[in-house]
Write a structure and sequence with these properties.
The chain is an alpha+beta fold. Helix content is 49%, strand content 17%. The chain contains 6 helices and 6 strands. The strands form 2 sheets. Strands 3-6-4-5 form a 4-stranded mixed beta sheet. A two-stranded antiparallel sheet has the order 1-2. Helix 3 crosses helix 4 and helix 4 crosses helix 5. The longest helix has 21 residues. It starts with a helix and ends with a strand.
């Protein structure tokens, strides 16, 4: 949710920064035009609106934000091993959690509907624990993580095909 606020702020601030960067300060016409935009006259009082500046993000920070948008890790059938390709995304989440010790993450484990409910709860927990251990190895304190297993109880999609089952075998990071 906090990430959404940051992205909305960037969506508002970046066009403003672009306009500011494109403006010229030479001559009196430019400065008076800027005054007209930034100031409002109320009776005889001139009210100046504050200029909001957004922090300039580096390419690495932008990439990290993009990676954190992805919050789902998928698993193979009857498996709790983290597949190659998720390292960069998990590293971005770990970096964010290390830099924001006040934030917590819920690591939700899920399984498809095959197997008994008890087995699927245990499998979802093994998957969530695998992600939590990975984040912990990257420096995230255990106190920032909560592990929950839903087993087969909260499927992403309802269906009985291999594609449907694959979408339900997952761990979701919830902030």
């Amino acid at each position: 949710m906090q990430l959404n606020k940051v992205l909305k702020g960037l969506a508002i601030a970046l066009p403003m920064i672009t306009l500011t960067a494109c403006s010229s300060t030479e001559g009196t016409e430019s400065s008076s035009a800027t005054e007209t935009v930034n100031n409002a006259t109320i009776g005889q009082t001139v009210v100046t609106s504050p200029v909001v500046t957004a922090p300039v993000l580096t390419e690495k920070e932008l990439r990290s934000q993009q990676l954190r948008q992805e919050q789902t890790i998928y698993f193979l059938f009857n498996d709790s091993d983290i597949q190659p390709g998720y390292e960069e995304m998990l590293a971005a989440h770990a970096e964010y959690l290390r830099q924001n010790p006040q934030d917590n993450v819920i690591v939700e484990g899920h399984a498809d509907e095959r197997g008994t409910p008890e087995y699927n709860i245990a499998l979802g927990e093994r998957r969530a624990n695998a992600i939590a251990r990975y984040l912990q190895a990257m420096g995230v304190p255990v106190s920032q993580m909560t592990i929950v297993s839903y087993g087969e109880e909260k499927p992403l999609v309802n269906g009985h095909s291999d594609v449907d089952y694959a979408k339900n075998r997952r761990v979701v990071l919830v902030y």
